Amino acid sequence: MTFTLTAEDLASKWGFADGDLFFDFLWDHDLGDVDKHRVLVEAVRRYLLPLLPGVQVYEIETIHNPIRTEDTIPGDDVAVTIEDDQVLTIARAFQ
Question: pTM of this prediction?
Answer without folding.
Answer: 0.95
